[in-house]
Amino acid sequence: MTRKFNWILSYIKAQFNKLFIIHYLLKQVKIYIIKMEITQTAIFSLISSFGSAYNAYPAIASLKGWSIGVTSTPNYYSFTPWILQFVASVAFFGGVVLSIKFGAWWHGIIVFIIGSSCGLIFVFIARLWTRFIALIGIFIGIPILLLINWGYISL
Predict the structure, then answer these.
(1) Which residue, 6, 82, 119, 145, has most beta carbons within 10 Å?
(2) At what angle do helices 80-102 and 2-64 cross, to 10 degrees?
(3) Domain-by-domain residue ranges, the chain?
(4) Alpha helices per DSSP H over 65-129
């Protein structure tokens, strides 16, 4: 009886060791994938937050009584504010769409939420410098999005 029990115990121990080794290897692969997903999500969220901050600034500035500036007020003689708001929207939704393309479908939801939230936080932190800093981030971020999409930058 003890011999059979020892054999069963050694068999269970061997299976546990196999499971532990497989679990360890899968854990290493999973950590690498999670690090890659976090990097992608962070880059896409940062670019989306610049677009969100640029488009959210006029509404928040008018509520707070801050200066909106010439580039924010749309008039019928200049297309500059509309073009810049369109480019900011392209940056925001470009980050969301590329996060869906290069990750799972729910990465788009995460990038949308983080990008919107960080954009609003950025408006309250930077105040009057929001539009200027966001434009720099947008015009650096859109080429990065294009290079990632075309495969010149791999994450």
Answers:
(1) 119
(2) 180
(3) 51-155
(4) 80-102, 105-126
Token output for 9 = 């115990």
Q: How many residues does the chain have?
A: 155
To the nearest whole number, what is the mean pLDDT of the chain? 81
Note the pLDDT tens digit of each residue in 24-52.
655 655 555 566 678 889 999 999 999 99
pLDDT band at 153 (very low <50, low <70, confident <90, very high): confident
Distance (Å, whole) CA 36 – CA 101 = 14
Asked if 38 and 153 touch (Cβ cutoff 8 Å), the reply is no
In contact, 130 and 121? CB cutoff 8 Å = no
Say if CB 88 and CB 55 are below 8 A apart: yes
Per 3-state DSSP, what percentage of the chain is helix, strand, and coil (rounded to 5)? Answer: 85, 0, 15
106-113 long-range CB contacts below 8 Å, 24 or more apart? 107/37, 107/40, 107/41, 107/44, 110/41, 110/45, 111/41, 111/44, 111/45, 111/48, 112/48
Pair 40, 88: CB distance under 8 Å: no
